[in-house]
From TrEMBL:
Pfam families cross-referenced by the UniProt entry: Reeler
Protein name: Defense protein Hdd11-like
GO annotations of cellular component type: membrane
Species for this entry: Lingula anatina
Top-rank taxon: Eukaryota
Amino acid sequence: MQVRIVVVVCCALGVTLAYPYGAPVGSCLAMFPTGHAVDQQTSAPPFQIQVSQATYNPNDVINVTLHTLASDLYKYWEGVLLQARRVAGNMDEPIGTWTIMANDTNDLKTLNCSGINNSAVTHNVEKHYVTKVVQWTAPPQAQGHVKFRATFVKNKVTFWVNVMSATVQDPTAEPITDNGKNGASSTRVIYGDVFVLATLCTLLKRML
Ligand SMILES: *[C@@H]1O[C@H](CO)[C@@H](O)[C@H](O)[C@H]1NC(C)=O
Ligand SMILES: *[C@@H]1O[C@H](CO)[C@@H](O)[C@H](O)[C@H]1NC(C)=O
Ligand SMILES: *[C@@H]1O[C@H](CO)[C@@H](O)[C@H](O)[C@H]1NC(C)=O
Ligand SMILES: *[C@@H]1O[C@H](CO)[C@@H](O)[C@H](O)[C@H]1NC(C)=O
C-alpha cells in the first residue's frame, strides 16, 4: 500500500512544471502558480534578484540578475515569473518593460501582463537555470520606488513566491530606507519531504 502511494507520488513528481513553456497570463496578478496545487515554501528562498542601479530615472535601462544562492542544495530553478512593482500605492500593476538578451530568447520570453506589452519575464523552456540577466526599461514617467519581484519554481511542488530585490528608488519620490531583504512569506514546509520522496523514488526506480 505504502509502496503504491510512493509510486503514484513519483509519477506526479516526474511532471516537474505545470507550465513548462512559461507562466500563463492568468498568474500575472498574484504571481502564484495555482496549477501546482500546493503551497509555497516557507524557507528563505535560495535565489536572489540583483540590480545594476539603486535609483532609476524615466527610460533608464537596468540589468536585473536572477541567480541561485550557493546555499541551495540543488542550485537551479526551472520556472520563473518576474515583474517590477511599486513599493507603495498601486502595488498590483507591473511597471516598465522587459527585454530578453539576444542570446537568451530560447530560454526566456516576455509576457504581456495587465495589458502592458512585455511587462513580465517568464521561462520559455523547462530546464535548469542557475543565473540569468534580463533588462528592465523604466517607463517614460516617474512611478515611485519599485522592487523587482519574482516567483521561482524548482519543480511542481517546490516554489518560492515574493522573492524581492532591494528597492530601486525614484529620486522624485519621498526617500525611503530599505534593508534589501527578501520578502518571503508562507504557510508550509515541504522541501524536506520532497527530498525524502526524491530519494525514495531513486531507490524505487532501481528496484522496479
Ligand atoms: C548590462 O548588461 C549588458 C549585456 O550583458 C552589458 O553590456 C552592460 O554593460 C550591463 N550594464 C550594467 C550597468 O551592468
Ligand atoms: C549570454 O551572454 C551573457 C553575456 O555575454 C552570458 O553571461 C550568458 O551566459 C549568455 N547566455 C547564454 C545562454 O549563452
Ligand atoms: C504581447 O503583445 C504583443 C504586441 O501586441 C504581441 O506581438 C505578442 O504576441 C504578445 N505576447 C503574448 C505572449 O501574448
Ligand atoms: C503593444 O504592442 C502593439 C504592437 O506593437 C501596439 O500596437 C500596442 O499599441 C502596444 N500597446 C501598448 C499599451 O503599448
